[in-house]
Amino acid sequence: MRAYRIAYDGRGYYGFQRQPDVPTVEDAIFDALRALDVFAGEKPSGYAAAGRTDAGVSALAQTVAFEAPDWLSPAALNSELPADVRAWASADVPDGFHATHHATERRYTYHLHAPEADAALAREALERLSGRHDFHNLTPDDDGTVRRLDTALTRDDPFFVLTVSAGGFARQLVRRLVSLVAAVARGERPLADVERVLAEEPLDGPRGVAPAPAQPLVLAAVTYGPSDALAAGIDFDVDTEAAESARQVFEATRVEQVTSGRVAAQLLAGVDAAIDD
């Protein structure tokens, strides 16, 4: 078994997970593996991915694992991948390793363009949303809505950079959380609405919270911690050639527009850090 770190610019894809008749990142990976004769059929043996990012969402450290031949380096995989999907590191993992179930933490960042927003209000709203809560009013899911979140916010004018970490996420949770924080920080909703959103009563229609746009969201990190025997000791080896390829791709797309340019800049910075390490 081998695991791979994958970075991608998600703006041209209908999410990570395969869907019929629309381009997805997973389809691009499977097409590349088929072109390399790594597998034939529906999916590689033992295959799993760390997360299912939505349409338009990008990633720096999406992680996939499957039965792979020894010669399949990240650079070899990149030879058949599209330019906006890049493998940049890999690690040997034990049989039975599952990229979804053995992840102990996922970290997302969101680049919120908010030049007139109140940073103190944003931080207070985010603090109230931190910890363990039932987030049923911030997701369309009916179960799995109780989560423990760790959050942080930095100001980088004219942006807020929100970081949200958890063992796992309900659908649209981060984007709806961002939407709520942004509304409070801009004076569009009172701070008391945070408690109202966390209350048991469902909020529907105009009282509910719609998801923020997907493009500024990045899956920034996936952690496989020492507490899990199958994940302990996994050491990802950065493929310098592949990481440089990824750097060039994200440098080329860095400033197409305000928020998406920020996302490309984060992907670029993350790859640069991997190369330096």
Automatic annotation (TrEMBL):
GO terms for biological process: tRNA pseudouridine synthesis. Substrate binds at residue 108. GO terms for molecular function: RNA binding; tRNA pseudouridine(38-40) synthase activity. Its EC number is 5.4.99.12. Keywords: Isomerase, tRNA processing. InterPro entries: PsdUridine_synth_cat_dom_sf, PsdUridine_synth_TruA, PsdUridine_synth_TruA_a/b_dom, PsdUridine_synth_TruA_C, TruA/RsuA/RluB/E/F_N. It holds the Pfam family PseudoU_synth_1. Residues 125-224 form the Pseudouridine synthase I TruA alpha/beta domain. It comes from the Archaea. It is an enzyme of class 5 (isomerase). The active site is at residue 54. It catalyses: uridine(38/39/40) in tRNA = pseudouridine(38/39/40) in tRNA. Belongs to the tRNA pseudouridine synthase TruA family. Formation of pseudouridine at positions 38, 39 and 40 in the anticodon stem and loop of transfer RNAs. This is tRNA pseudouridine synthase A. It comes from Natranaeroarchaeum aerophilus. The gene is truA.
